[in-house]
Amino acid sequence: GGVSIFTLQLAKAAGATVIITSSSDEKLERAKALGADHLINYRATPDWDGKVLELTSGLGADLVVETGGTATFARAVNATAPGGTLFTIGFVTGAEATVNLLPIIIKALKVVGNNTGSVSDLRDAARAIGAARIEPVVDKVFSPDEAAEAYAHMAAGGLHFGKLVFGLEW
Ligand SMILES: NC(=O)c1ccc[n+]([C@@H]2O[C@H](COP(=O)([O-])OP(=O)(O)OC[C@H]3O[C@@H](n4cnc5c(N)ncnc54)[C@H](OP(=O)(O)O)[C@@H]3O)[C@@H](O)[C@H]2O)c1
Ligand 1 center to residue 155 CA distance, Å? Predict the structure, then answer.
């Protein structure tokens, strides 16, 4: 999705090794072209957290960007390395999750919430995007009077790769 593809681009610009998940092999190939190092199809590999551990010598990822919510949170906890950060952004599959606290406690994880970020965060992001010459991946641009169509496209789920954008005339 939009958050994940921007995360991939920023993480590669920061020099990270990136593991990305999708239900679509075609999307995974597009993510690979953007620099993703490891691809996991979460439909074909429902225990994708186990695959993350396998790819990281049993440790897990230092930073997990969690956009799924209900269906993914427990696996995201499992996929996070000791001392790592579980950045909790989204709730695509629901906002409620049953959590086993033990792995969070034992691995001393930092579970960090996020609500869009501040104006200064946005300035930092814009600076990073400019410095690394990141070209945002825009799937489709809608005009404001196409709002209903745009939201329906998003609600259909998984049709787009990268961002859906409203183009504004200034
Ligand atoms: N906290 C914040 O500041 C903030 C900011 C922006 C967005 N959000 C939230 O973050 C979430 C993602 O936003 P987005 O713009 O990236 O949405 P999006 O573009 O619609 O992407 C969502 C993606 O989630 C994946 N997905 C769906 N079901 C899944 C499952 N069961 N397991 C794993 N992945 C699954 C799908 O990927 P594939 O199609 O590749 O399978 C889908 O394309 C939303 O809940 C949004 O409200 C929060």
Answer: 11
Domain ranges (residues) in the chain: 2-136, 138-170
The rounded distance, in Å, linking the Cα atoms of 152 and 150 is 5
- Decide if domain 2-136 falls under CATH 3.40.50.720: yes
Q: Over the stretch 82-117, which tens digit does the pLDDT of each residue have?
A: 999 999 999 999 999 999 999 999 999 999 999 999
88 CA from centroid of ligand 1 (Å): 11
Which of 137-163 are b and which e, b meaning 16 or more Cβ less than 10 Å from the residue's Cβ? Answer: beebebeeeeeeebeebbeeeeebbbb
- For 2, the enclosing helix (H) or strand (E) is helix 2-13
Q: Report the nearest-CA residue for atom 31 of ligand 1.
A: 71
Does residue 158 carry a pLDDT above 90? no
pLDDT, tens only, 3-60: 999 999 999 999 999 999 999 999 999 999 999 999 999 999 999 999 999 999 999 9
| Pocket-forming residues, ligand 1, beta carbon under 6 Å | 1-4, 21-24, 27, 42, 67-68, 71-72, 89-93, 114-116, 154, 158
What is the number of the ligand 1 atom nearest to the C-alpha of 92? Answer: 45
